[in-house]
Amino acid sequence: MGNYTITVLAGDGIGPEVTAQAEKVLETVAQLYGHTFTFQRGLVGLTAIEAEGAAISDETVALCEQSDAILFGAVGGATPGAKVKPEQALFRLRKGFQFFANLRPVHTFQALLNASTIKPEVLQGTDLIVVRELTGGLYYGHLEPAVPGKPSEIRQTERGTEAIDTLLYTEEEIERIVRVAFEIARGRRKKVTSVDKANVLSSSVLWRRVAERVAAEYPDVTFEHLLVDACAMHLLRQPSSFDVIVTENLFGDILTDEASMLAGSMGMLPSASLGTRRTAHGTFGLYEPIHGSAPDIAGQDKANPLAAILSAAMLLRHSLGLEHEATVIEKAVERCIDEGYRTADLRESGKEVIGTKEMGNRVIETV
Ligand code: ATP
Ligand code: MG
């Protein structure tokens, strides 16, 4: 029994709808197990821009700082070309809290094998997690001090117009993310696949070297290297052969979108972003569904809240240290799917479609 503070940043579009269901599930767990969850709310995204002039205010960042975890909905929906972008809220939180580890579990539920466009016999048994490096690499390249200039730019030279991006990783950045992968693997099927492009990139050669050094400290975990192009292929050929995949920022971005197709719908996939900041019982983190604000279905009680609910389960596991309670939620979600409850994104012939709130209620009852 414990007291925990959770900052809820519901955001835009379907964000508030799915987050409300996740909150209801957390409240139910709190009652059942005698915990006290204090929810504090802040605005993010377009909602915050309209009300406060920024995608996330200093006050809201301060709220996050005073809590054990952040439950995040979605941001988006600005008109193209707008000066202040809703997504800036996420970048500020990721940078500010140094959320360098992005965890994306991909679990193909048995009862959803037919909901995907991929053959059931290929999907069978898929249960993997991608550990993506989130604060370095190509997206945060910097040339200084080796070459003065901007991190990435389009510039005029005597050769004409050219553009440059830099893929830079320090040993320390590689080591800390690989370590996260091995620690997670120990609690799973004990296999780590490190994905790189070591036949072409120096950063990947270093990545391999550091990954091998870390792997030596985990003799109980099976370790392999895989080139990113081969990984992209194997994900669709034999996804069940993977347990934990660890990779750099850009590769992780692409591979996780690809892997999301294995679960049947974006509305099924949770994520966690973790850094080095500790809470009393775990690691401070931000938890959000991988989908966006989906303005096309917002406000219609159509969105699938399971990704948000599964994100809440990850929150319990990683930030609050409540492993049992997290598993209870995950099992309840699986049971609801087994029993045939489907939101519109999982539409299957012969199955009745229920709304966002109703799905939330089904999970609560099952919990
Ligand atoms: P954003 O700019 O915020 O990313 P988007 O329009 O790209 O918004 P996404 O949320 O990325 O929308 O989703 C793409 C499509 O997938 C949406 O059009 C929506 O219909 C569907 N979708 C996304 N999330 C869900 C969900 N939780 N339940 C049902 N359908 C969803
Ligand atoms: Mg999107």
TrEMBL record:
Q: What does the record say about how the cofactor binds?
A: Binds 1 Mg(2+) or Mn(2+) ion per subunit.
Residues that bind substrate: R94, R104, R132, D229
Q: Does the keyword Amino-acid biosynthesis apply?
A: yes
User: Does this UniProt record's set of keywords contain Oxidoreductase?
Assistant: yes
Write down the required cofactor(s): Mn(2+); Mg(2+)
- Residues that bind Mg(2+): D229, D253, D257
Q: Which reaction does it catalyse?
A: (2R,3S)-3-isopropylmalate + NAD(+) = 4-methyl-2-oxopentanoate + CO2 + NADH
Compartments (UniProt record): Cytoplasm
Which InterPro entries does the entry link to? Answer: IsoCit/isopropylmalate_DH_CS (IPR019818), IsoPropMal-DH-like_dom (IPR024084), Isopropylmalate_DH (IPR004429)
Q: Where is this site: Important for catalysis?
A: Y139, K197
Pathway of action: Amino-acid biosynthesis; L-leucine biosynthesis; L-leucine from 3-methyl-2-oxobutanoate: step 3/4
What GO molecular function annotation could you give as one example from this UniProt entry?
magnesium ion binding
What is a biological process (GO) this protein takes part in?
A: L-leucine biosynthetic process
Listed GO CC annotations? cytosol
Task: Write down the top EC class of this protein.
Answer: oxidoreductase
Summarize the protein's role.
Catalyzes the oxidation of 3-carboxy-2-hydroxy-4-methylpentanoate (3-isopropylmalate) to 3-carboxy-4-methyl-2-oxopentanoate. The product decarboxylates to 4-methyl-2 oxopentanoate.
Q: Which NCBIfam families match?
A: leuB
Instruction: Tell me which family the UniProt entry assigns to this protein.
Output: Belongs to the isocitrate and isopropylmalate dehydrogenases family. LeuB type 1 subfamily.
- UniProt protein name: 3-isopropylmalate dehydrogenase
Q: Which organism is it from?
A: Thermosporothrix hazakensis
Source organism phylogeny: Bacteria, Bacillati, Chloroflexota, Ktedonobacteria, Ktedonobacterales
Q: Which gene encodes it?
A: leuB
